[in-house]
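mind reviewing both lines:
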Amino acid sequence: MSAAEFLVEHDRLFVTYARGLTAAEWQQPSLCERWNTHQVLAHLVVGYSMPPLELAGAMVTHRGNFNRANAAAADRLASRLTPDELIT
């Protein structure tokens, strides 16, 4: 199995798992101290959905701090989309 095939399979397994979570499980605290499970999903998705210019703007807003820019983007995405919408 190539690295690309492995990543596609990993994503497929993750989506299958995530679709099985209940509404209550999406609201559970995660191991990331400031996020619940829904927000962690948004963090994973934001990298696939954020246009480069938007990332650049977020970096400027957050004084070049990638972690803060990424966290803010994930929080906004989680507030706009449900877990089902993020998975899709």
In short: The mean pLDDT is 92. The chain is about 75% helix and 0% strand.
